[in-house]
Amino acid sequence: MASWNPRMETMPLDELRRLQFKLAKSLVYRLYSFNDFYRRRMKEQQVHPDDIRTLEDIAKLPFMYKRDLRDGYPDKIFSAERDELVRYHVSSGTTGKPTVVGYTERDIENWSESLARGFSSCGLGRGDVMQVSYGYGLFTGGLGAHYGAERVGATVLPTSVGNTERQVELMQDLHVTAIACTPSYLLHMGEVAEKMGVSIKNDTDLRLGFFGAEPWSEQMRARIEDWLGIRAYDIYGTSELSGPMFTECAEQQGIHIWGDLALVEIVDPATGEVLEPGEQGELTITMLQKEALPMVRYRIGDLTTIEEGTCACGRTHPRIGRIRGRVDDMLIVRGINVFPSQVEHTLLEIREVGRHFQIVVDRKGALDSMLVRVEVSEEAFSDKITDLMVIKKKVEHRLRGSLNVGVDVELVEPGTLPRFEGKSKKVVDRRSL
Amino acid sequence: MEKSYIVKQISIFSENRPGRLAAIAGALRDAGINIFAFSIAEANGFGVVRALVDRPEDAYRRLTDLGFRVSFTDVIGVKMRDEPGGLSDIASVLGNAGINIEYAYAYSGKDGAVLILRVDQIEDAVRQLLGHGGNLLKASLSQ
C-alpha cells in the first residue's frame, strides 16, 4: 500500500521517541514563556520546563480539560496572534457556551498532512473521487476531510450532509470511489439508494470510506463492508486536536496516531495515573506541533486502549483501539456531541417549562433521533392545545439552536421525570451499535 | 351581572397513554365530586381533559395534590333546543357579534342539551346570548 511520508511513518521507535521529546520540550518552553494560561497552570503544579528531562516527565505536566477552553472563551488561551490565524472552527460547549478553536497556516498544514498519511495508508490517492458527506461549516468534519483528500491528490466532491437522493445520483454520475461521513449517515444513504433502485455495491464505483465522529462497532463494520461492498475505515479526532485527524491503515488494526504530531497517554480517569499499553483508560493527548491552540495532556474523555509495536503495515507509530465509552455523560447524536448539561442550561432559560428533563435517544432506521421530555410549568399551562403546541415548538427551536441537532420535545405530566436519580435515568439511550 | 354566568371549568394536563383518564376520574370519585360534562382534546403525545364539576375548588386541590397540572378556565354553558337548529341559533349569535369560539363541547341529557363554550370575549358573549333570549347555566351551579 502506498505511503505518504514513508520516512516519518516507519521511523524506528527510539528515534520517534527522541523526536517526541525534542518537540515536547520546545513546546513546554514556548508555552511557559509566552502563554499566561499554561505558565499559571505549570506554576500551580510546581513544575518548570527544566523538570522535563525525559519523555516520561511529560506526566509531571498539568492536565487540560474541555472546561479550560470554555473558560478561555473565545480565544484567551490561544498562543498565536490574531493575524496569524487562518481559520476558526466552533463546537458546542457543555453548558451552552461554545468552544472556539483557531488554526495557523501550519496547523492546517499539519492537519492535512496527518490525514494524507492516513488516507494514503488505506489506498486513497490520485484518480480517486472522495465524496465528503460530513457537515461543512463550523463543524471540523467537512473541511478537515476535504483538505486531507485534496492533499493526496484525490478529487473532492464536497456534498456535506443532507439531500441524500442527490448525493446518490452524484456518487454514480461522478464515479465516486471514496466517502467520508458518519457511519449512521452512510447506512441512511445506503437505504435511500435502495429505495431509488440503486445498489451501492453493484451500481457505483465506491470502494472505500472513512467513518467517524460517532462511535461504531466491528459488527457495524462487517455490515457496511458486506452490504455496500466497500472497505470501511475508522477515523478519529476532535475539534481540540484540529478535527478528524487519525485513521486506521488497510490492516484495520487500530488507529495510527502520528507520534510527531501527537503524544498519546492513556490515564486512569479517577487518579490521572498513566496506564500501561493494553490497559483501558482515558485518552489523553498532547499536540506536539500545534501553534494556535496547543493542547497539553488534554483529557478527551474517550475511553480506549493504546498499542505500541510495529503494525503489520510496517508503520511504527502507536495505535489506539476502538472508543469504548466516555468518562462523562456526553452523547453523540448524528455525529454531534451533546451534553445533558446543555439541555439543562437551555431549559432554565425557558420559563414555560420546568427544569427537570429526560433525554431519550433512539435510532429510527439508520438515523439517530433525540427526544427531550419536559414538564409544562404551572404558570404556562393553558387548556388550549394550540398554546401547548407553541410551547413545544419553542422548546424544540431553542434546543436545536443550542445543541446544533434536531430534537423532538414531549410534554409530560409533572412529577413523572427523574429528579435525583442522576445520569442513568436522565438519559435513556436505546441505540445499539 | 355577566359574571354570574361565567362558569369555572377545570382543565387537567394529561399524557396520552392508558390509565390517565382513569386516574383523574378515580381521584374525583374518591372526593365525591360529580362531573356534569367533560371533553378531551388531544395532540401528539398529550392531551387536556376539561371538565365541569360540582365543586371545582375541591377538584383543583385534590388533583393538584396528586401532582396533576390543573388550571381553571372561564367558560359559559348555554342551554340549546334539543332539535335541529339548536346549535345553529347560538353559533349565529356569536358569529354575528364577531365573537370567536376557541373550543366547544356539548352534552344532551334529561334536562335538554347544553353547549359549553370557551370564547375570546366572554362577557360580550354572555351579553349577546342573554340579549337574544339565550338560557345560560348559572355559575352557582358549580360552586
Provide tags for this entry.
heterodimer; A: Rossmann fold; GMP Synthetase, Chain A, domain 3; 6-stranded mixed β-sheet; 4-stranded antiparallel β-sheet; 13 helices; 21 strands; 32% helix; B: alpha+beta; VC0802-like; 7-stranded antiparallel β-sheet; 4 helices; 7 strands; globular
Structure description:
The complex is a heterodimer of chains A (433) and B (143). Chain A has 433 residues and is of the alpha/beta class. Chain A folds into two domains: 1-328, Rossmann fold, CATH 3.40.50; 333-429, GMP Synthetase, Chain A, domain 3. In chain A, 32% of the residues lie in helices and 24% in strands. In chain A, the strands form six sheets. Chain A has a six-stranded mixed beta sheet with strand order 4-3-5-6-7-8, with helices on both faces. The longest helix of chain A has 22 residues, at 13-34. Chain A is globular. The mean pLDDT of chain A is 93. Chain B has 143 residues and is of the alpha+beta class. Chain B folds into two domains: 4-73, VC0802-like (2-Layer Sandwich); 75-142, VC0802-like, CATH 3.30.2130.10. In chain B, strands 1, 2, 3, 4, 5, 6 and 7 form a seven-stranded antiparallel beta sheet that branches. The two termini of chain B are 17 Å apart. The chains are: A alpha/beta (433), B alpha+beta (143). The interface between A and B is medium-sized, with 17 and 23 residues.
